[in-house]
Amino acid sequence: MAKQNVAEQFIDILVRAGVKRLYGVVGDSLNPVVDAIRRNSAIDWIHVRHEETAAFAAGAEAQITGGLAACAGSCGPGNLHLINGLYDAHRSMAPVLALASHIPSSEIGLGFFQETHPDQLFRECSHYSEMISNPQQMPRLLQTAIQHAVGQGGVSVVTLPGDIADQPAPDKAAETALVTSRPTVRPGDTEIDKLAAMIDEADRVTLFCGSGTAGAHAEVMEFAEKIKSPVGHALRGKEWIQYDNPYDVGMSGLLGYGAAYEATHECDLLILLGTDFPYNAFLPDDVKIAQVDVRPERLGRRSKLDLAVWGDVKETLRCLTPRVSPKTSRRFLDKMLKKHSAALDGVVKAYTRKVDKHVPIHPEYVASVLDELADDDAVFTVDTGMCNVWAARYITPNGRRRIIGSFSHGSMANALPQAIGAQFTDRGRQVVSMSGDGGFSMLMGDFLTLVQYDLPVKVVLFNNSSLGMVELEMMVGGLPAYGTSNKNPDFAAVARACGAYGVRVEKPKELAGALKDAFRHKGPALIDVVTDPNALSIPPKISKEMVTGFALSASKIVLDGGVGRMAQMARSNLRNVPRP
Q: Which residues pair with 233 in a beta bridge?
């Protein structure tokens, strides 16, 4: 039996760790690895058109499955293209192993063709970044990298020179057990007792939830009921906490709506649950704040805390809820629910008035129709920019849908690549890319990846021929819009030229039928919807500080967009408010 080389051992270990595919672009320094995949039936090589797509796709796959995903880039420019998608995966706590192949080991440090130093370059966007410079480092170094990515949640990068990959692997390499899942983290009794005492002393408690509440919906609802607390959320917490939530008061932040801002400012104790909410201008500075997070480095870096609790949300609430005294007054909760319902009723008219006749089409209308027609377990991938607004306000979570975007890193062009990774996990599940024309055109080449693998991703293109968020940033700064317009082709015709289904929609009455036809189509499809560039959005509360680095506008052309079915949800919750 032929002796394994390092590349073959590398791939075998990835398979043992649960990796089913490696996204990347082939290159000479990767040849031994790609050939090892060719001869291993347990793993597939996914040939994308750009390595940035490979990293975004791997990050999305990891977010969907919760397991390790992988991507690769060849030496120099090849693996450099991975960096943006790896930043996004790392900041999203998605466990991703990136293979950065390298120039011949004998030439490192001598200015060789395509030379970079990937083991150094990727350190800021990874928990672990090291180079295999000797076959004897295998398999321990790769196992260590895997355990960093899975155990800490984020990226590990292994740099592997092509000549080392082709060398014989060590004899009798130990096959140690691999970390494939993360443990729960329980706070100490002292912290739990302190938090229980703070809750018992407070009259008005508000919960503000982030992505750390994933898997803890039942515990949050039980806790909110016991302490009669309104529950708000950040964008990354939307899919985990908003559905089946009779305490919902909406979302705070730059894309916010409803009464979440008021609930976080009018309470006398704010509890941050699993959120690294970045916009501290939206958080109060005159109420007591406690924070619960599984990542201790996040505790207190946004707000001055009165109590920091290191633990995952689900386990913390399991310990905490029995220790707090039940509150009997719903006065604060009911007040916030009424404010929330009134706020949503007030803005919903902005997208319903003559919307069936408005040309160009209101993007709010597009998002609301998409929300109605999409499957109950659909995966939505969302481009950064105005698509974030429409997803935040119109896509209704239900506990089965997923909403993935570059919500922490804020990169353009993320939606299509993430849809690729999401669709590979389950070809039978509906995956919808909510793409802006700017983001889509940036990595448009990977629409060909959909065609090559016949992935049934549905790209709903919000085509306003502009970089809408950037225009808003300029307006906020008192500047005229400049360099933000896009001269676009007929994207539907481009899709058809690529061999996919494509349809262009310019009138509202055509929209529902076009979406239904595209959803029925078995393969990849693109719906190019020409939308109104003047349909922009502002949050419910604005200050000068809030606009920094983001798009807000107080001009008269701004529509304070609607909120889709969330208004109905709020009215439903109001029916549970006791009448005097």
A: 209, 251
| Cα atoms in the Cβ-side hemisphere of radius 13 Å centred on 357 | 2
22, 72 contact by CB (below 8 A): yes
The values of phi and psi at residue 431, to 5°, are -120, 125
Q: Are strands 248-251 and 257-258 parallel, antiparallel or unpaired?
A: antiparallel
Taking only the tens place, the pLDDT of each residue in 405-427 is 999 999 999 999 999 999 999 99
- Beta strand 501-505 with 525-530 is parallel
Residues 6 or more apart whose Cβ sits within 8 Å of residue 2: none
Looking at per-residue confidence, does 172 or 231 come out higher? 231
What single-letter amino acid sits at 385? G
- Mean pLDDT value of segment 484-513: 96
Please state whether beta strands 288-293 and 231-233 pair in parallel, antiparallel, or not at all (unpaired).
unpaired
Q: What is the pLDDT of residues 261-311, one digit of tens each?
A: 999 999 999 999 999 988 888 889 999 999 999 999 999 998 999 999 999
H-helix segments, 404-545: 415-425, 437-442, 447-453, 468-476, 491-497, 508-520
Interatomic CA distance for residues 473 and 551, integer angstroms: 4
The string of pLDDT tens digits covering residues 187-209 is 999 999 999 999 999 999 999 99
Question: Whose CA is closest to 236, among 402, 363, 364?
Answer: 402
Q: Which of 67, 108, 61 is nearest to 424 (CA)?
A: 61
Q: Count of alpha carbons within 13 Å of 165, Cβ hemisphere only?
A: 28
Cα gap 22→115, rounded to integer Å? 23
Residue type for position 533: P
Taking residues 110-120, report their average pLDDT: 96
Alpha carbon distance 232, 44 (integer Å): 41
Sort 26 into a burial class: Cβ within 10 Å, 0-12 / 13-18 / 19+.
middle
Whether the CB-CB separation of 208 and 233 falls below 8 Å is answered with yes
Tokens of 410: 């804020």
69-73 and 21-24: which strand pairing? parallel
DSSP conformation class of 531: B
Q: Is the pLDDT at 550 greater than 50, yes or no?
A: no
Secondary structure of residue 111 in the 3-state scheme? coil
Distance CA 274, CA 281 (A): 18
Neighbours of 497 (CB within 10 A): 11
The span from the CA of 157 to the CA of 484, in Å, is 35
Helix 31-38 and helix 6-16, axial crossing angle in degrees, nearest 10: 60
Where residue 510 falls among pLDDT bands split at 50, 70, 90?
very high
pTM to 2 decimal places? 0.91
- Are the CB atoms for 446 and 48 separated by under 8 Å? yes
Structure tokens at 427: 């070809």
Q: How far apart are CA 241 and CA 294, in angstroms?
A: 17
User: How much is the mean pLDDT over the chain?
Assistant: 90
Rounded distance between C-alpha atoms, residue 131 and residue 122, angstroms? 11
User: Are 93 and 120 in contact, with CB atoms under 8 Å apart?
Assistant: no
Q: Can you tell me the distance from the alpha carbon of 21 to that of 572, in angstroms, rounded to the nearest whole number?
A: 44
More confident residue, 579 or 60: 60
Q: Where are the beta strands (DSSP E) in 267-362?
A: 269-273, 288-293, 307-310
